[in-house]
Design goal:
By secondary structure, this protein is α+β, with helices and mostly antiparallel strands. It contains three helices and twelve strands. Strands 7-4-10-9 form a four-stranded mixed β-sheet.
Length: about 180
């Protein structure tokens, strides 16, 4: 039951993504046109302190008109190491520089439409470097007790699936 991408042509692009139209053959031999969004990898990071609090950002997403808690995240620049990008994004968006990063998980948030891969990391420590360079990315940055994360997700306070998955994994790793 495998779909086969016979060819693609670009219909739009900018520095963050490309929209392509694919000619796809279905398992029954029929064909269809399918739009595909090609994106650069995304890297995200957070830290957990000695009190088992996780560093999160409270932000508004205008596309869905929703507020929620997230990890600092952004696109990986051409040639940039993914973990280095995660550390850079965390410092730029929170003012906290993570220590050694540990891979948490990699997810494909919408693999029926896009090839985006989100690589999520965490650190057991971080140090304050000053006010965030990209403070406009969020309304506030807070250390939240990791033990309350599942309830936050259940209440819809972490609406992004990639962030919810990462936080549940981190909760499991740290608290069992």
């Amino acid at each position: 039951m495998q779909w086969t991408n016979l060819s693609e042509r670009n219909v739009y692009q900018n520095p963050w993504f490309r929209v392509n139209l694919a000619d796809v053959r279905l398992p029954d031999g029929s064909r269809l046109d399918h739009f595909v969004i090609r994106q650069r990898p995304v890297a995200a990071a957070t830290a957990v302190n000695e009190a088992n609090e996780v560093l999160l950002l409270w932000r508004h997403r205008f596309i869905t008109d929703s507020w929620g808690w997230e990890l600092a995240a952004g696109v990986v620049e051409d040639g940039e190491d993914i973990a280095a990008a995660a550390a850079r994004e965390m410092e730029e968006e929170t003012g906290w520089r993570p220590g050694a990063l540990h891979p948490l998980l990699t997810v494909e948030p919408s693999n029926g439409l896009t090839d985006a891969r989100h690589h999520l990391y965490w650190s057991e420590d971080a140090h304050w470097t000053g006010q965030p360079q990209d403070a406009f990315e969020s309304s506030r940055r807070e250390w939240i007790p990791l033990k309350v994360v599942p309830d936050m997700i259940a209440r819809g306070e972490v609406p992004a699936a990639n962030m919810a998955a990462a936080l549940l994994m981190l909760h499991h790793l740290r608290l069992g």
